[in-house]
């Protein structure tokens, strides 16, 4: 699941992910389970509204590493 994120086109962070969802570019969204729900829940709701698949990742650090960044990420998306 995270290997697709490592190798494919992606965005990381809440703002970029919300923009990708709004633009119709997000294919799948990844949410870190240890992130603040105030950050992840609005993104998850937006995905439900738009019919975008959501994957849960155990840790922000793991999600950030999959995105190729040195810090954790609460939200990321695979885009086309």
From TrEMBL:
<dbReference type="InterPro" id="IPR004038">
    <property type="entry name" value="Ribosomal_eL8/eL30/eS12/Gad45"/>
</dbReference>
<dbReference type="Pfam" id="PF01248">
    <property type="entry name" value="Ribosomal_L7Ae"/>
</dbReference>
<protein>
    <submittedName>
        <fullName>Ribosomal L7Ae/L30e/S12e/Gadd45 family protein</fullName>
    </submittedName>
</protein>
<feature type="domain" description="Ribosomal protein eL8/eL30/eS12/Gadd45">
    <location>
        <begin position="11"/>
        <end position="77"/>
    </location>
</feature>
<dbReference type="InterPro" id="IPR029064">
    <property type="entry name" value="Ribosomal_eL30-like_sf"/>
</dbReference>
């Amino acid at each position: 699941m995270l290997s697709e994120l490592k190798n494919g086109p992606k965005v990381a962070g809440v703002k970029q992910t919300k923009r990708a969802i709004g633009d119709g570019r997000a294919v799948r969204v990844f949410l870190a389970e240890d992130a603040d729900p105030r950050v992840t829940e609005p993104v998850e709701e937006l995905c439900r509204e738009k019919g975008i698949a959501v994957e849960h990742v155990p840790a922000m650090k793991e999600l950030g590493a999959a995105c190729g960044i040195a810090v954790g990420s609460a939200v990321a998306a695979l885009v086309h």
